[in-house]
Amino acid sequence: MVFVAALNVLLTLTHGDKLLISQNLLQIKSSFVNTNGVLNDWTPESSICSWGGLSCSQDQTHVISLNLSNQGLSGSISPLLGRLIFLQKLDLSSNSLSGPIPPELGMLKNLEELLLYSNSLSGGVPREIGLLKELKVLRIGNNLLSGEIPRSIGNCTNLEVLGLASCEFNGSLPKEVGNLRQLKMLNLQGNDFRGPIPEEMCGCGELQNFSAANNGFEGGLPPSISKLFSLRLLNLANNSLSGYIPVELGGLFNLKYLNLLGNNFTGEVPTELNKLSLLETLDLSKNSLSGQLKISTYHLKNLQYLVLSDNALMGSIPSNFCIGSSNLRHLYLSGNQFSGGVLSGIINCSSLVELDLSNNGFNGSIPSEVDSLTNLAALALHNNSLTGSIPPQIGNVSNLEVLSLFHNSLTGEIPVEIGRLERLNLLSLYENQMLGPIPIELTNCSSLQGIDFFGNHFTGPIPPTMGNLKNLVFLQLRQNELSGPIPASLGYCEGLEELALADNKLSGPLPPTFGLLSHLSLVTLYNNSLEGPIPDSLFGLKNLSIINFSHNRFTGTIAPLVSSGNLVKLDLTNNSFSGEIPAMLATSTTLTRLRLGHNRLIGKIPPFIGQYTELDFLDLSFNDFNGEIPIELSNCRQLTHLLLNQNRLGGAVPSWVGRLKQLGELDLSCNSLNGEIPIELGSCSSLIKLSIHDNRLSGPIPPEIGNLTSLNVLALQRNNLSGPIPLAMRSLNKLYELRLSENSLSGPIPPELGQLTELQVMLDLSKNSLSGEIPPSIGDLEKLERLNLSDNRLEGEVPTTLGGLTSLHRLNLSDNVLRGGIPRSLSRFPPESFLGNVGLCGYPLGPCSSASEETGKLSEAATAGIVVAIVFTSTVVCLVLIYVMLKMWCNWREVSVSSSDGEVLEERRESGCDKRGNNNDGYVGLGSSPLQQKKKMRSSTETCVFDVNMKVGSVESV
């Protein structure tokens, strides 16, 4: 009924009822929400043939064209357009129309062009499109259209252009497309078509451009495609096509553009492609092609772009690759397995503008004939096995803009002739073995924007004329052996954005001209010998986001470095900065890393750090901060590392630490914290290292510590902790270091500790009040290297299972109440490992004597021997103790005289911590002497073992 009613309307329109046409057009106008005034002349008072965007027939009776392209229209397409049955062209492209394509458009029997591309239309393509028998151009791409293409599209047999690109179409391409024998252009790219390319495509004998890139087409490329003799462009890039490239493609003699990149083609590149004499672009990159290079520019005289990158091609470049006249301008062979001389077969390609042979196995040196490539603008030879030096003739390649030679084995110096390359834009030599000075002639290359010399052996100073490079944006000189001062002229490179001078031997102060680098966003100077205060001129650098000045000798305030307000990473560790953390640092709310450790900073930890909600690394260790840990830090929920050790912080360990769910390392050691360990710490399920040693903590170890199942290191030594070792510790099955020494822990050693089979570095329970026997299960800790149970009240025999600890190289069981014979398997350890247990005997101590059968008492001779031994041992111990005390007194006196902060150092020595982070293990190792054991040298646990600095190529780690 609806169709009959529409037909009646059409009959009326056929007789030229202009009034009705006018009414329909005005209703169509109302469907556009925003006309931007372009349809203001669509009024009943004027003739419709004078309305903007409309064209009428010659007799002024019918509307034959409606063109409202690129008029900023929004709203929807009105179904009433289907009543304009004389329309030959409908163009609503490049607007903001939404909604579906009305099926009523199928009534436009005379329509030849339907252009709806570049809108926001949605839904599917109506099957009524197949009713448009006269349609020649259908372009509906760059919309939100989806679903499958209707099979009825094959009825539009007059179609010459079918544009369906950049939508969300899916399913397979209907084989009825093969009915479109007049089709010249088919664009399907940027959809989600699946399945094979239909064999029936060969029916499109007039097809010139076929682009189906960026879809999911599968299977092989049908050989029947070779029947499309009119093809000029074939683009099937980034699909899932597989199998061999059909040799039949060699029959497409009109082909100028062939792009098959990003598929799964295998086998060799067919030599038949050399028959495509009109070919200008050939891209077979990112497949799995193998074999040797068989493409010849001798046959492909019109070839300008040859891209074979990222395959498995091998062998050397054929010597006849560029014989005769060649128009090849762009050659990309990177990411293959080519070998041999790097420019063999290419030297004669004099028309080359871009040459990329990177990521292969080319070897040998760069030939001096490189200057025969007179038109070369970009040369990429990185990631090969090149040796030798850069030839001086490189200076003759006067058009060179990009020279990329990084990650080879090049040696020798940078040739001074490189200074002739006035157009050079990028020079990348990183990760080679080059040496010598950076030639001052390099600063003649006034077009340079990027220099990367990372990871070589360059020596001498940075050229004092660096300021000549006014266009320099990126300067990477990290990890060389450069010395001397940073040249003041560097400040005149006013466009500089990234400056990396780390890992060198630079010295002297930072030049005040740095304040001129207003575009500077990254600066890394770490691991040098730079010194002095930061110039006040740096207050003006408002674009700084990444700063790493660590491991230098800078002094004074850090204030000039923190005025940016855009800081993301700030690392000033291991310097001699002093004063408080400046309040202006509060403006950098985007900070993710703040490292100020190992300086001389004072005052309280600023509460404003709590506003850094993206902060993941906070290191304030080894300073002189005091006061309590501010509660505002609880807002830093992204923290993975919190290092506040080696300060003078007081108060309790805050319970809010339990809210930091991302925390992987917490180090509060060597402070003056008191109170109990909060049970909330058990909520930090990501914690890998927990160090709270050398404080004044008391109370029991909370069982909630057992919830930290990711923990590798637990260091609670040198506190006032009491009570038993909680059984819940058996859950810490990833623990490789456990230190609970020098507390007041009591009760037995839990046998469950034997379940911590990953313990490797140490198990230290010394200097407590532990009692009972040593659990035999300790012998299950097969990876354990150090075991210290000394200075407790342990009794019973030494378990023979300890002999199974084959990795053990330090053992201390001294000063307990152990008895019986020492297991033979432990006799490899020195006597000091067992001293102070009067009931122990056997090697390496004295032999075990048998008891008297009648009285069970020792003989008089044995008793006398023991008395003599005790007197002798006591005398030796007293003498050693007197010596050690005198030595310690001398050391303390020396420190108190030489230290500018002697009172603080003295206090830290008494608590077991000093500025170097040393503390006592109390172990006796294999082959150690009594003197070594008495010195009790301490190993460091204060080093952050979870912060890894990484480099990838020339990327700077901070």
UniProtKB/TrEMBL annotation:
Catalytic function, reaction form: L-seryl-[protein] + ATP = O-phospho-L-seryl-[protein] + ADP + H(+); L-threonyl-[protein] + ATP = O-phospho-L-threonyl-[protein] + ADP + H(+)
Record's bilayer topology term: Single-pass membrane protein
Protein name: non-specific serine/threonine protein kinase
Domain Leucine-rich repeat-containing N-terminal plant-type: 23-57
InterPro entries: Leu-rich_rpt, Leu-rich_rpt_typical-subtyp, LRR_dom_sf, LRR_N_plant-typ, LRR_R13L4/SHOC2-like, Plant_RL_S/T_kinase
Enzyme class: transferase
Classification via Pfam families: LRR_1 (PF00560), LRR_14 (PF23598), LRR_8 (PF13855), LRRNT_2 (PF08263)
Source organism (scientific name): Acorus calamus (Sweet flag)
Enzyme Commission numbers on file: 2.7.11.1
Superkingdom of source: Eukaryota
Location of the Disease resistance R13L4/SHOC-2-like LRR domain: 79-191, 222-312
Annotated keywords: ATP-binding, Glycoprotein, Kinase, Leucine-rich repeat, Membrane, Nucleotide-binding, Receptor, Repeat, Serine/threonine-protein kinase, Signal, Transferase, Transmembrane, Transmembrane helix
Entry's Gene Ontology cellular component terms: membrane
Signal peptide limits: 1-16
Subcellular location: Membrane
Record-annotated membrane-spanning stretches: 862-886
A molecular function (GO) term: ATP binding
